[in-house]
Amino acid sequence: MKLLTLNCHSWQEENQIDKIKYLAEVINQKDYDVIALQEVSQSVIAESIDSKLKKDNFALLLKEELDRYSLNKYNFYWDFSHIGYDVYEEGLAIFTKHKIIDSESFFVTRNKNRSYWKTRKIIRIRISYNDRELDFYSCHIGWWNDEEEPFKNQIDNIMKRVDEATTFIMGDFNNSAFVKGEGYDYLIEKGLKDLYLLSETKDSGVTVKGKIAGWDDNEEKLRLDLMFCNKEIKVMTIKVIFNGKNKAIISDHYGVESEIDINF
């Protein structure tokens, strides 16, 4: 099984349409099974298609590009978390080429007002894969030292929903795995297994370099974009993508891709 996670930084990028097309090209080439995306936005004022989606929804446009390669190979689930920059409904998406048998979105923050930028929703899908049910979460979590919306509370609200099913929790956790005693260690304390540590083959894992939104004073290399499982699994490879070495840069975050075997 092949997985990808990426914070898309959508509609904040120059040449955004070209980058959507490039992302679709790489997804088609790599043939991922499940793709977790964050900062997947649509304009507040864009024309509505249905009760949720609007015409400029990043995930919808990506789906249209993917359909050019293989019609309806990928389906997606999307919901928005909060209003960003006053003009976007910023959300999360999960794409998969497998049957979605259940999906949900839920708040993990104390604040549930979607007009407030610290409000966080998380999305989950359950798929059928080789006669097994697997859960996948796409997450965009807040910062460790935020007293108003504590990181611990957000993670606790996710973990309350994790049951006996094999579960993958992926995304932008806004806590560097290189920093001890903070968010990353808390994730490990909750029993989650870092696919990076399980992997037989890996690279540096760095997904952010220098200053980005939310890390305005950063001068370090950070591993913010992570993949976890609630069980020990076999991970053959995990590596950073869209970093200028392994495919072109398309966001202020690099992505992470992995290949796993859950049937061993």
Your description of this structure?
By secondary structure, the protein is an alpha+beta fold. It has one domain: 4-Layer Sandwich (Deoxyribonuclease I, Chain A). 18% of the residues lie in helices and 37% in strands. The protein is built from 5 helices and 15 strands. The protein has helices at 16-30, 58-69, 151-159, 183-189, 195-198; strands at residues 2-7, 34-43, 75-84, 88-96, 100-107, 121-129, 132-140, 166-172, 193-194, 199-202, 208-209, 221-222, 225-229, 234-241, 255-261. The chain has a 7-stranded mixed β-sheet. Helix 1 (16-30) packs across helix 2. It starts with a strand and ends with a strand. The mean pLDDT is 95.
As residue ranges, the low-confidence spans are none
> What is the element string, with H for helices and E for strands?
EHEHEEEEEHEHEHEEEEEE
Name given to the CATH homologous superfamily: Endonuclease/exonuclease/phosphatase
Radius of gyration: 17 Å
Q: What oligomeric arrangement do these chains adopt?
A: single chain
Strand order of the largest sheet: 3-4-2-1-15-14-10
How much strand content do the residues show? 35-45%
Q: In terms of structural class, how would the helical and strand content be classed?
A: alpha+beta
CATH level-1 class: Alpha Beta
Please tally the helical runs, counting DSSP H or I stretches of 4 or more residues.
5
What is the CATH architecture assignment? 4-Layer Sandwich
pLDDT averaged residue by residue: 95
Helix content: 10-25%
Domain Endonuclease/exonuclease/phosphatase: 19-253
GO molecular function, one term: hydrolase activity
EC number: 3.1.3.90
Protein name: Maltose 6'-phosphate phosphatase
